[in-house]
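User: Some background: our group keeps a shared notebook of sequences we're curious about, and every so often someone picks one and asks for a predicted structure to add to the entry. Today it's my turn. The entry only has the sequence so far, pasted here. Could you supply the structure so I can complete it?
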Amino acid sequence: MAIYEIINVGANKALNISGSDLQGSSLYDNRKVCLWTRSGSGEQAWILDSTTNPDGIRSYLRRTFGLNAYRNSTSKYKCDIHTVEGNETDSDVTITAVSGGYKIKLKNYNMYLTADGTDDGAAVSWAPSSTSKMQVWKLNKKTIITYGKSTTLHGDIGTWGTAGLSGSDLKDNAQYIYDYLKDEGFTKAAACAAIGNFEAESTLNPAIWQNKDKITGRDSGYGIAQWTPATNFIQWAVDVGFITSVTASAINAKAKSSIQKLMDAELAFLMWTLTLSGNVFYEDVSFDSFRKSNDDVKTLAKTFAQNYERPNSTEYSKRQNNAKKWYDYF
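Assistant: Of course. Here's the predicted structure to add to the notebook entry:
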């Protein structure tokens, strides 16, 4: 399992879900697929569990959607986005290596993924096999988890009662998260607002469970932000090739082998949830405006709590005080 850009050889442009500033929450059945200049954005990222016989070519923005054949004629099928599960007849594909790249064929029809032009916005269809480079595609594997700053991080597998961090261990992890968020364009106040919330959720221990060794259910949060259910993060970790199965044992093994790699994965997932998987902030408070804000850190801590973590309102004060503590510390 990994994430790929799919690049048309004839046009040297990326397979792209149509839509400006597209977010996963706005995907819907029969949304247009087109070519576009490579941008590295989420609408140009695709999940493949195999490069020969994948379980559909799924969107990184929202894995329940993938490439689909809309059979609107007998000579050529429109390529669009559709829910994959239950639609395997029109979404299953096979991938075959050819000179210069790969050809992508519908498993159930003698039709191949084809670029219909070379301009931005050019349509993509399924058409009978030809020797044209417009039917040849490159699969460029994307690296999603990249931070890896040299440092020592801390964390133990367990629950809040057994694996909370404090003292210098807490500060080391806070510094790492702070540096990452700053590199991602957060102001000091916005970064500390987020960290204040994460401290309340997990004591900044990336290996902490709300309910140890469980991955489903409302009492099974996981990681620095306590994503609930834990499968929200763990499924993503499988999709990007970080682990191989959606199990507690798989993610626990990563925690044992490298707490830093686990932290890096969680930080990458955090940014995915904030920028690629739909705007989780209210309409009048965009994530980007939050990230760039220099408002009072306590105000921002409450904003982050209301829009991302969504705890009981009685917990706002604790998170705000945490955020102010970190703002004074850094």
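Suggested note for the entry: The two ends are 39 Å apart (CA to CA). The first strand starts at residue 2 and ends at 8.
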